[in-house]
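Why do we care about 3D structure at all? Because function follows from shape, and shape follows, mostly, from sequence. That is the central idea of this module. The next example makes it concrete: a single protein chain, its amino acid sequence, and then its structure expressed as tokens.
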Amino acid sequence: MKNFIEELQWRGMLHDSMPGTEEHLLEKMRSAYVGFDPTADSLHIGNLVPIMLLAHYQRCGHRPIALVGGATGMIGDPSGKSSERNLLDEKTLRHNQECVKAQLGHFLDFTSDAENAAILVNNYDWMKEFSFLEFIRDVGKHITVNYMMAKDSVKNRIGSESKEGMSFTEFTYQMVQGYDFLHLFRENDTTIQMGGSDQWGNITTGTELIRRIGNGKGYAITCPLITKSDGSKFGKSEGGNVWLDAKRTSPYKFYQYWLNTSDEDAEKYIKIFTFLDKETIASLIAEHQEAPHIRVLQKRLGEEVTVLVHGAEEYEKALEASEILFGKSTSESLKKLDEQTFLDVFDGVTQATVSSEDFSAGLDMIGALAAKTNFLKSNGDARRALKENSISVNKEKVKEDYIISSKDLIAEKYVLLQRGKKTYFLLKVE
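And the structure:
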């Protein structure tokens, strides 16, 4: 077995661990779990850090357990939150659980006969039959209110600066999560819980329950909360969360997120979000420092993570789409793009709509540039641009006599017009 703690340390993924954790892991194969919030049918890249914790854990020879928090998802974790979240019904949670498992399957081995094959559990399965009276009698009496109030996740929400306060439902969250650890300790011999550094309080409540009720020893491992060098939140783009589901965030946009990271962040992220070894990463960093403008680190980071999440084929498509704005494309490569990727590539480009009747009759270039669209100020401007040979249709130069027809359609409804190297217009037929 590889030394898991050492692996986390050189990758910059270890924030804290309980004394004795490293020795505990070196004794034999151990089971550890991480909880995932099932309040959406997709994880986002903010979840990649705990996913990679589990993936590295399995690669070091130990058994990872992914816990989907069906029960805790009905409550809402107050850690790092300023208000209470919306609660979900069981049907929605079950659907989300299956979606989450499918995404985790890209990183974890759930299906092999290996002794350390991953396990997926849902805490709703053991909490749904637990009555309130049983819970406060069998679990609640072991943890004092003073102990619970001392947690940062509680103090930050009930302090004088908090406007929202904290519901009793949320206050009990650490007890429910702590009981999860105790349950897995009993049923799966799980001795370690892992999570972000903001989860330390919840995890240690679990170790306390294992000590008091289970007469055993539990351990905690936390990783740093990932931030961007400019201070903005990791995992967010201008459009919101960057999701692992291609329907929510296209592979092209997903790849672009990593490609656009700063040099400082790329050097940090390539250790955290890939399985590349220390020597390979050191070589890439050295190569990048010699010629930062080539963006070797960002390109390799984008490749590794996109292939992990979406597969090699989608990465190749994203790469091809990325070349389009830099002039390295043809009409054929444009027509290979699906509608969502095409719109993502040309997000923000000026659009105009022409009717299918006008289009079916054949659209002349003056109409496409000015008369029907107002892309250019006048028909005269359109003629001058065409005479200057500066107009392209789907990346191919055209003259004034060119007629746009159905053969030029991308995704069956778009035509890309271009003036010079950098000015694009999007024609939509409907």
